[in-house]
Amino acid sequence: MEDQKLHILLIDDDRFQVAALKKIIDGTALAGTVSIFEDGKQAIDHITQLTLLGEGLPHVIFLDINMPVMNAWKFLEAYTRLKRKLYRPIAVYVVTSSTEGVDMAQSRHFETVKGYVVKPVTKEKIYQILKGVVVE
C-alpha cells in the first residue's frame, strides 16, 4: 500500500550519484516518495518546515558528506538540535565515497546516524536498510 511506503530524503550534490541511488531505491519497491536536496541546508529547512506544518516526516535520510553550503557534519549538528521537536525519529545513513577512518569515526559521534555506506551502493544494501525501517 502506498501509505505504508517509505518517504526518503537523498542529500547529495552529485547528480550522477543521486540518479544511481534513486534508481536503486525505486528498484526496491519500498519507497513511496524520494525527495532530493543538493545540500544539507536545503534539507534541514525542508525538515523544519515539515515539522512546523505537522506534515509527514521522512523515514530515512541518505546523506553525502561533502556538499556545498552545508556538509553532512553541519547538517547532523543542525538535525541533532531539531530532532527533539520531531514526533518520530528519522534513520540517517551516511552514503559517501570516503573510506577515511576519520569520517567513519565522525559519523559515529552522532547517535542519529544508523550506518555508514561506502559508494558505490548496491541494491542489496539499500534493500536491507529500507526493509529494516518501521513505517509509522
Please count the helical segments.
5
Q: What is the annotated CATH architecture?
A: 3-Layer(aba) Sandwich
Compressed to H and E, one letter per element, the order equals EHEHEHEHEH
Number of E-type strands: 5
Structural domains: how many: 1
Radius of gyration: 14 Å
How far apart lie the N and C ends?
A: 13 Å
Q: What is the overall pLDDT average? A: 90
Strand content: 15-25%
Largest sheet: 5 strands, parallel
Helix content: 40-55%
Overall SS class: alpha/beta
The spatial strand order of the largest sheet comes to 2-1-3-4-5
According to CATH, what is the topology?
Rossmann fold
Shape: globular
> CATH homologous superfamily, by name?
Response regulator
Poorly predicted residue ranges:
none
Could you outline the blueprint of secondary structure elements for this entry?
Layout: E1 6-11, H1 15-28, E2 31-37, H2 40-53, E3 60-63, H3 72-82, E4 91-96, H4 101-107, E5 113-118, H5 123-131
Helix pairs in contact: 1-5, 2-3
Short structural summary:
40% of the residues lie in helices and 21% in strands. The protein is α/β, with parallel strands linked by helices and 136 residues long.
Commentary on this structure:
The protein has about 140 residues and is an alpha/beta fold. The chain has a single domain (about 1-130), classed as Rossmann fold (3-Layer(aba) Sandwich), CATH 3.40.50.2300. Helix content is about 40%, strand content about 20%. The chain contains five helices and five strands; from the N terminus they run βαβαβαβαβα. It has helices at about 15-30, 40-55, 70-80, 100-105, 125-130; strands at about 5-10, 30-35, 60-65, 90-95, 115-120. A five-stranded parallel sheet has the order 2-1-3-4-5. Helix 3 (about 70-80) links the parallel strand 3 (about 60-65) and strand 4 (about 90-95). Helix 1 packs across helix 5 (about 125-130).
